[in-house]
Amino acid sequence: MATISLRKGNTRLPPEVNRVLYVRNLPFNITSEEMYDIFGKYGAIRQIRIGTNKDTRGTAFVVYEDIYDAKTAVDHLSGFNVANRYLIVLYYQQAKMSKKFDQKKKEEEITKLQEKYGVGLAAKDK
């Protein structure tokens, strides 16, 4: 198997590789059992979280016990067809994910501070 050969060699993995995978373009009606069937073929899974609300439907997080199993899953399942949808399987990167959410919070914070201290377009004109 490919995973065994990876472990035996002194293979250095790229820095973005980790045990947590972010899966997009999932069918909305996919079940946890189906996810375990698809992703469990590549190694022991610690956890699967499927998005259920409006913003997260069609996405999931898959956490593997071993980093090499996660790498094998990404290599084999990126572009895999499930219910006529091609999966997008990426390594989860906290920095990139948090930037999307933090940007909105920062903009709201700036607006509140501008209103509180009376800073804004009028202040720029002075």
From TrEMBL:
Q: List localization entries.
A: Nucleus
Q: Which Pfam families match?
A: RRM_1
The domain of life is: Eukaryota
Q: Does the keyword NADP apply?
A: no
Q: What is this protein called?
A: RRM domain-containing protein
GO BP terms, alphabetized: mRNA splicing, via spliceosome
Q: Is this entry keyworded RNA-binding?
A: yes
A GO MF label: RNA binding
Residue stretches making up the RRM domain: 19-94
- InterPro entries in the cross-refs: Nucleotide-bd_a/b_plait_sf, RBD_domain_sf, RNA_proc/Spliceosome_comp, RRM_dom, SF3B6_RRM
Organism lineage string: Eukaryota, Viridiplantae, Streptophyta, Embryophyta, Tracheophyta
What is the protein's species of origin?
A: Coffea canephora
Question: Which UniProt key words apply to this protein?
Answer: mRNA processing, mRNA splicing, Nucleus, RNA-binding
Looking at the UniProt entry, the stretches that span the membrane are none
Q: Which GO cellular component terms, listed alphabetically, does the Swiss-Prot or TrEMBL entry include?
A: catalytic step 2 spliceosome; precatalytic spliceosome; U2 snRNP
